[in-house]
Amino acid sequence: MRRPSPLMRRMAIAGALGVGTTGVLAGVLLLGPLAASILLAVVFALVWPLAAVIRHVADDAPYQSAVVVAGAAAAGVLCLPGLVRLLAWGAVGLAVAMLVAGLFILIELVTPERRPRPSRSQRKLERLKQAELQEDEQLIASLQCPLSIEELCGVWTETATTLAQGAGPRDRQAVAEVRRICLDEFERRNPTGFHRWLDAGAPANPSRYLLSTPPGE
Hints:
This protein has 217 residues and is mainly alpha-helical. 77% of the residues lie in helices and 0% in strands. It has nine helices and no strands. It has helices spanning 6-31, 33-57, 66-88, 91-110, 120-143, 149-164, 169-189, 191-199, 207-210. Helix 3 runs antiparallel to helix 4 (91-110) and helix 5 packs parallel to helix 7. The protein is elongated, with a radius of gyration of 33 Å. The protein starts with 5 loop residues before the first helix and ends in a 7-residue tail after the last helix.
């Protein structure tokens, strides 16, 4: 079965909100402002703590705010008698509900589409990635300091060991950037030894080529 398009889903949700709003207003007229306020407060007070507990214990929270869930539940309870009252009005009540639903759909169509807010697990993963990137940047920044060529050779050897041990995608990306910096420094500080090292197949330990010069040079 073909799924409805995002636009159709937005229109359906907007229409449902319009009908629900009409039901809530009709419920207020039916019960009176005082009774409607008491009903809203009681339902909100009962649902809000339960929604907050579920959101706290769930690994991936099914909703963003417990307050919104409690408010929607309270409005839904008040909406039911209001919709019954609208049906009792017959064609007039149905026309009013359709008119408000059409107004909500029109507002939704002229409003720019909102980007969905990331879930708690997505935000946690994003913070973890940012922390990892900061660690990589600190490592790379330390290599851009004036380290000695002996230290750079040691770093290159360590990266070779890391790759040999089966580094993950994140470690491979960091190793690639570290090695790029080392290569630039090798060529800048000792171009002759650097090219001899490359001609030898770039072995894991470049110190024997970069820390000495061939006889006669």
